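note to self: dont lose this again. the chain is below, predicted strucutre after it. 688 aa total, dont forget to put it in the shared folder this time
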Amino acid sequence: MDIKWKKYSHLVVIKLIAFIVAIVCFTSALMIFVNIIIIKNADFGIAFEESYFLGTDYVSDSSNILTSLRNITENYKSEEHILKGGSLKEIEIRQREENLFWDFQNNSRSYNPNLTHEENYVLFKEVYAAELTELKDRLITEELQAYNSVLRELEKYQGLIYYAVDSETVFTNSTNKTKDHFQSFPSYMVFDGPEYKVFPQEIQENPHYYWITSNTNQLGHQDKMYIAFNEEFLNSRIGEWKENKVLVTKGLYQITGFSLGLALAFIYLLVVIGRKNGESQETPLNVVDRIYNDFKIVICFTLIAIWIAAISQINHVPIYNLMYPVTLFIASLGLIFLLSFVKHLKNKTFLKHTLFYAIFYKIFKFIKEIYDSGSVGIKVVLIVIGYPVLVAITFFMFPITLGIAAWIALRKVKEFSAIKEGVKRVKEGDIHYTINVSGGGEFAQLAGDINSITDGLYKAVDNEIRSERLKTELITNVSHDIRTPLTSIITYVDLLKSETDLAKAKEYLEILDQKSQRLKTLTEDLFEASKASSGNIPVNFEEIDIESLITQGLGELDDKVQDRKLEFRINRLKDKVFIKADGKLLWRAIENLLSNIFKYALEGSRVYIDIIDSGTGVMLIIKNISAYELNISSEELMERFKRGDESRSSQGSGLGLSIAKSLVEIQKGSFDVEIDGDLFKAIIHLPK
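---
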C-alpha cells in the first residue's frame, strides 16, 4: 500500500512540475514576443539583417519620405494652390456629387421621376447649390489637413535634407540645391529624371529596394528629387537598429528555448493526463472536468479577448511588467481547461459533456419516450404540434424543411401501399410473401407483425404436413417392428401345437422366447421414450466425474466390446471436471449411444470418446464408423423408429437416439448428432 501511494505521489509531483514548466515557458515566450513587437516596435526580421542599410527600417523611411515629397510636388504643391482648389481631383469631386445626387433622388421632393437623368441632374445642381459649394470647401479643407500632415511627417526626420522639383513646384529645406552638396552627406539618394545615384551602394542590394524605386519610376525628365541624411540622423538610426537587433536576436533564442520546454512539458501532459486507473475503462474526472465543455470554451475565449484588449493598451514598461502575472494566471486557467478537453476526448465525452447537448438530448429523449410509449394518436398529435414548431425555428430554410416533410410523407405512403399489397397477397393464399418495409416506425412494426403471422402460418402448415408424415411413418415403423416378432410367435405357436418331436419343440420354444423378449424390449423402449419425451421422470442432480462414469461403464460392457472387436480411445482432460447431472439417467443416455455403436458400428473399427472443457460446461463427443451407409440427415435420424439402415434389417428399435436426447435435455443439457459420410458423431453438452 505504501509503495503504491509513493508511486502515485511521485506521478502527481511530476505532473505538477510539467504543468508549471508549461505555463512559465508559454507566458515567458509570449511576453518576450509582446515586448519586441509592441513595446520596442521591432521586427523579427531584423535578426537576419546584415546592416542598417540592408534592413527594412532604412528603405521604409526612405520610401515614406519619397512618397511625401511626391505628394507635395505633384498634388499639393503649396498652401495657396490647395486653397484655390488646384489639388482637387475631378473624379473625387464627381464621386461626392454622386453621393449628394443619390440623396436628392431618394429624399428630395424636387426629384421628378418623369424627367431624364440629365434633366434631373440639372435640377439637382440648382436645388443643392449650397451643398455643392460647401462640398468643395470641405474637400479643400481635407486637402489642406493632409498637406499639413505630410509636412509634420517630414519634420519628424531630424537630420533629413531634401530638394524636390517638378515642372511647376520647388520644395526644399536646403539653401544649397546642388547635387554635390547632397552627395557630400554620408548617405543620399539623387534622382534626376531617369538617372539616379544612391549611397552607400549596398542599398541597391536591399531585398526591399523596390520600395524606393516604385516612388521614382514616374518622375519626368525635368523632375528632380534629392534626399540626404546627415551623421546625426544616421548615428541615431544605426544605434537604434543595433539595439533592436540585439534585442530581437536574444528574444528569438529565448522564445526558441521556452517553446522547446513548453513542447516537451505539454506533450508529457497530453500523454499522462486522464490515464485510466486500474481496470476502469473510463478516464477519471475532477471538479473542473465536470464543468460543461461549452462553458469552458466561452470562458477561454473571454479570457483571450480580455488579454488582447489589455495588451493593446500597453505603451510603457510598468504596465508590461504588470501583465506578466495576469498572463500567467490566464495561461494557467487555459491550460487546465485544455487538459480537461483532452480528458473528455480520451473518454469520448467531449460533445456529450456540453450544456447544449444535455438540453437537446433531454428534450429529444423526452419526446422520443412519449413517441415510443404512446399510441398512434399520441404520435400523430406530436407530429402535428412539432412540425409547425420546427418550421418556425427553421424559417430561414423553409423550402428545405418543406421538402424533407414531403419526402417523409411520400415514404410513409409507399410503406402503407406495400403493406396493403402484402395483406392482399396473403389473403389470396400466398403465405410465402414477405412485406419489405425498412426502419423502425409504426408501418415497419405492422409489416413485421404481418410477416410474423405469415411465417407462423407457413410453419403451422409445414408442421402439420410434417406431423402427418411422421404419424404415418411412426405407425408404419411401429407396425413393422411389432409385427415381425409377433408373426414369428404366432407361426411357431402353430408349429408347436402339431409338433411331436421333443427336440424340435425345444428349438421352437427357444425361438419363441427370443421373439417374446424382443417384443418386450420394443415395448419397454417405446414406453421409456414416451416418459422421457414428456419429462415425467424424476431427476436427482449431483456432482459426477464423467470420465470415471464412462470408464466404469465400458468395463461393464467389455464383453460386447470384445464381441464386436471394437477399439475405444478416450481423450481425457488433464484435470478432473465434475458436471451437474443425474448419474443413472446420464448413464442410460450414454448406454443407448453405446448400444447403437454395438449394433451399427463397423466391426473391428475404432470408437473415439472426447471429453472437452468448454468453460461453462463439458462436451462429450462419441464418434464411430457406421457399418451401414448413412444416407439420411441427422434430423431424420433423431426421429423415433428411424434407423441408419432403411431396410430395417438390424435389431434396433430406432428409439435409442430419441431416448438419449430426451434424457439429456431433462438434465438441462443439449444433445445433437452429426453425420459426415459414414462417420457418426453424437455430441452431449452438460453444465459443470
